[in-house]
Amino acid sequence: QPGDRLLGGLLSPGFDDGSCLSRYGSFSYRRPSPNNPSAYLISRLRNYESLHKRCGPNSKPYKEALEALRSGSAVGYGECKYVVWISFSGLGNRILTLTSSFLYALLTNRVLLIDQGKDMMDLFCEPFPDESWLLSKDFPVTDQFDSLGQSSPNCHGHLLKNNMINSTEKRMPSYLYLHLAHDYNDHDKMFFCDEDQKVMEKVPWLIIKSDNYFIPSLFLMPSFEQELFNLFPHKEAIFHHLGRYLFHPSNHVWGLITRYFDSYLARADERIGIQIRTLDGGDGPLSYVMDQIIACTQNEEILPKVDQHGTVSSSPSEDTRLKAVLVTSLNLGYSDNLKNLYWMYPTVTGEVVGVYQASHEGYQQTEKPLHNLKAWAEMYLLSLSDVLVTSSWSTFGYVAQGLGGLKPWILVKPENRTTPNPPCGRAMSMEPCFHAPPFYDCKAKRGIDTGVVVPHVRHCEDMSWGLKVVGDDHQDL
Amino acid sequence: QPGDRLLGGLLSPGFDDGSCLSRYGSFSYRRPSPNNPSAYLISRLRNYESLHKRCGPNSKPYKEALEALRSGSAVGYGECKYVVWISFSGLGNRILTLTSSFLYALLTNRVLLIDQGKDMMDLFCEPFPDESWLLSKDFPVTDQFDSLGQSSPNCHGHLLKNNMINSTEKRMPSYLYLHLAHDYNDHDKMFFCDEDQKVMEKVPWLIIKSDNYFIPSLFLMPSFEQELFNLFPHKEAIFHHLGRYLFHPSNHVWGLITRYFDSYLARADERIGIQIRTLDGGDGPLSYVMDQIIACTQNEEILPKVDQHGTVSSSPSEDTRLKAVLVTSLNLGYSDNLKNLYWMYPTVTGEVVGVYQASHEGYQQTEKPLHNLKAWAEMYLLSLSDVLVTSSWSTFGYVAQGLGGLKPWILVKPENRTTPNPPCGRAMSMEPCFHAPPFYDCKAKRGIDTGVVVPHVRHCEDMSWGLKVVGDDHQDL
Ligand SMILES: Nc1nc2c(ncn2[C@@H]2O[C@H](COP(=O)(O)OP(=O)(O)O)[C@@H](O)[C@H]2O)c(=O)[nH]1
Ligand SMILES: Nc1nc2c(ncn2[C@@H]2O[C@H](COP(=O)(O)OP(=O)(O)O)[C@@H](O)[C@H]2O)c(=O)[nH]1
After folding, report:
1. Which pLDDT belongs to residue B477?
2. Would you report the helix, strand and coil content of chain A in percent, each value rounded to 5?
3. pLDDT in tens, B202-232
């Protein structure tokens, strides 16, 4: 079905295949999506693609906007405005902030361009036909990306704090730096107020540094709300659609994904992904986490129980059902223990369980290029699961669940190094959690609990102060 | 086919299934044997089983023979004579010496009984119907098994050396200890002379301690030669038949074997076993051994070459051919490297390669019961391969090749810590190598090269001074 190949119309058909085999090849590895993109989203994406082509890094408007940037003034920037995304933080975080920045660009009719950082080009294909999304090498602010922070002169929050910007201002700067990282302050958070958005409209360049999936708070802004409903009538599949639209593994990563899948996972009857990300220190597998994994997967009947007194399975047969478990973790111990468990004992169901782990990198080594290729391959492989178990607080897991269209079982974050009870709970939606949302009512100008304002934006399962978008079927849970 | 279930008539049909699921279950995991047991072998095995029943540890003759043993004199021992096998050395060695002892018992019309050592009962089922092969707990010499050696009073070599035994002797001892371990001396080696065999005929109890597969030298003894030809007309499948006859994994081990096979190997299109046993010291994977494994498997087209410059395989397809490689090694490094190689790069053939390792025990820990269960499971799993690569000098590998009926590719023993060239060669036969054969002509009473006396007993591929039996098709190589 050609419709599948384009993921229900999400993808433009106009790309050349060979340069990015994953783009039109992914559908043959994925389960069908639980949720089709709306016709409106599709038409907005096609329109965005035209805009991107018209305003992209090789266009005249881009050159004009660069001129304005160099001049320091918003005056005379031409017909296009931009969102520039700075490559920042771990790969899971980057994928989520890039998605957030893209949606923000879509909502504000801006063009998204990205800082290619160390490895963005090694990891991802170009998402838009005809024109690159990579910022040109001569972009004048590039060498300040690392140092941009809350006290940078063009930082939106900084300008606000010092009353140097407001909607009546005549001379707007040519760019604003939007500090949307976890440590942002109340001034930076004014980004989420319609009034401030009005000011920004006049600025051709918005440069974003973030490590947060900030889409849930966009849903709370009256200026965006209706458009978001039109784009995402089912609400919860925002990252599911935009992520599959934007992030196509490079051929290098696609090789890692397909080879691993074909070698270890393809022939199983059911695929289970378990993403283990421990934030408590300590070497080796943590026993309370190991216990938690086993308790969760066995209580929730994700994996069969074993018969500790049995030796051979009671009903051996030619067509034994095979479950393949893909574990991702920096540490090898969890999968090793699980593998041993299902080697040493028969299951009570007679199923057999194969346990796999692609890499065990020991610790986060974001600077090593192969490290992130593997991380991306593993997030993607997890997303090909039929059932997914993730760790609390991890964007790595959010990416997997979102791309896969899966509501994972989330391992409850352990407190005091003990196994939580219950060990895990089912996610309400496949959406990622916004870890550091603002708690502010822009109209009333006072603090509020933004997790109880509308039924489709709620506190996250894994982080009580986080916000996530939930689908219609979960809004009155 | 019920014939398959009994391995071409090798097995007696008279066992109860449940107590030993591997016995009649193995045929469904194995490829068909390249070589059928002869009708004569089958009839001799059935006869042996009757003898074993008649003389076994619960019989009257056994009690009489025990009486004689206690009295110290061969006089009045009843109608049965015995070979007692002492559990000694690594598991591969034990399997080979037990097979040698059994064949020797068969040739001399004796009954084989075994010292159950630490774990023989945990590892193996009873091989003979109706009567156990385990020595009774009250066997008077058991507590001397460990200390029996070349200077023990009843040691055959010791008695010879001191002229305390010969064929005209009237008062024969009730037992002889036969020291057939690698450090045995010229007197001990007289075991392989017909004249000495004549003497032993009068002794009811022969107690053997060995770490060698001594069958090749039995072929050089005129008194046994014809019988051996009748039993094994194709010669080379001696261990293949006797091993499959004697060694049935216990239910515990069978669980390990079948679960591992069903989880990781069953669905592959081809199974390749690689047994890595390094005798040079040093932690971690040895780079010259790693290079050797890759050179051997790729030169001999056992595994496909990879395209170091490729990223995605050229012809991805639904029905990609899958090769499963089972690596056994005390060290995890070799399989880890191999797994990574086939993850990182596409193969030039478009095949995909999954790499598996069941255990990585670090070092030999013969005393740990689970250690040997795993070792036995892994030898057996290797034997289920379609193609086998083994390490030089290792009885662990010999067991796998023999049970599987496979002529392995043998990795040449590295010298000076460098990769040998060629890295491996094909074995002439599936038979194990006798590592410490005698070089003596019993008639001429002088040293000779026993590897050139007859065409079917030749020096081994992996050990120039070893001896092995080769089949008719290889005798004039
Ligand atoms: N290959 C691999 N890398 C991991 C894994 N877990 C964490 N990492 C590394 O650590 C980084 C974690 O950052 P991020 O992806 O933002 O996820 P988060 O920190 O869990 O939210 C990843 O990008 C990887 O570089 C894993 O299971 N596999
Ligand atoms: N599980 C496991 N054990 C091994 C392996 N290689 C060696 N061992 C252990 O080391 C012992 C080696 O002794 P043996 O079986 O007689 O083989 P050999 O020394 O290679 O002739 C085995 O019995 C195991 O206990 C391996 O690949 N897997």
Report:
1. 43
2. 35, 15, 50
3. 999 999 999 999 999 999 999 999 999 999 9
Task: Give residue A172's Cα distance to chain centre.
Answer: 32
Choice among B126-140, B310-324, B430-444 with the minimum mean pLDDT: B310-324
By the 8 A CB rule, do A185 and A70 touch? no
Report CB contact under 8 Å: B258, A21: no
Phi–psi pair at B352, nearest 5 degrees: -110, 150
For the question of an ipTM over 0.85, the answer is yes
Would the pLDDT of B316 be above 60? no
Give the Cα separation of A17 and B316 in Å (integer). 13
Per-residue pLDDT of chain A (477 residues), as tens digits, is: 555 899 999 999 989 888 999 999 999 999 999 889 999 999 999 999 999 999 999 999 999 999 999 998 888 888 999 999 999 999 999 999 999 999 999 999 999 999 999 899 999 999 999 999 999 888 999 999 999 999 999 999 999 999 988 767 677 899 999 999 999 999 999 999 999 999 999 999 999 999 999 999 999 999 999 999 999 999 889 999 999 999 999 999 999 999 999 999 999 999 999 999 998 877 779 999 999 999 999 999 999 999 998 877 655 566 789 999 999 999 999 999 999 999 999 999 999 999 999 999 888 776 676 899 999 999 999 999 999 999 999 999 999 999 999 999 999 999 999 999 999 999 999 999 999 999 999 999 999 999 999 999 999 999 999 999 999 876 544
Residue pair B433/B426 in contact by the 8 Å Cβ criterion: no
Tokens standing for residue B32: 């068909």
* A1 Cβ contact partners less than 8 Å away, ≥ 6 residues apart: none
What does the block give as tokens for B229? Answer: 């030809």
Q: Which of B122, B264, B315, B341 would you mutate first to test chain A, the one with the most A CBs within 10 A? A: B264
Nearest bound ligand to the CA of residue A381? 1
Q: Which of A28, A312, A344 sits opposite B258 (nearest CB)?
A: A312
Chain B residue with minimum CA distance to A20: B312
**Residue type for B2, please?**
P
Neighbours of A23 (CB within 10 A): 22
Q: d(Cα A45, Cα A80) in Å, to the nearest integer?
A: 17
**What's the rounded Cα separation, in Å, for the pair B276 and B129?**
36
Residue burial A380-411, b: 16+ Cβ < 10 Å; e: rest: bbbbbbbbbbbbbbbbbbbbbbbbbbbbbbbb
How many other CB atoms sit within 10 Å of the CB of residue B401?
27
Distance of CA A337 to the CA centre of its chain: 29
Three-state secondary structure call for residue A40: helix
Q: CB distance A346–B255 less than 8 Å?
A: yes
In this structure, what are the phi and psi dihedrals at residue A45, rounded to the nearest 5 degrees?
-65, -45
* Pocket mutation for ligand 2, best pick of B97, B253, B364, B379 (most atoms within 8 Å of C-beta): B364
- Burial degree of A17 (CB within 10 A; 0-12, 13-18, 19+): exposed
- Please, are residues A260 and A55 in contact by the beta-carbon 8 Å criterion? no
Phi–psi pair at A278, nearest 5 degrees: -100, 135
Of B263, B311, B346, the CB nearest to A352: B263
Q: Which residue has the tokens 């089983």?
A: B49
Query: CA-CA distances (angstroms) from residue B199 to B113, B148, B176, B191, B202?
Result: 21, 21, 10, 10, 6
How far apart CA A267 and CA A271 sit, in angstroms, is 9
Nearest CA in chain B to A252: B311
Those residues whose C-beta lies under 8 Å from the C-beta of residue B208, and which sit 6 or more positions away, are B83, B84, B85, B86, B97, B101, B104, B178, B180
Question: For residue B12, which amino acid is it?
Answer: S
Three-class SS of residue B92?
A: helix
- Kindly report the number of other CB atoms within 10 A of residue B208's CB atom: 27
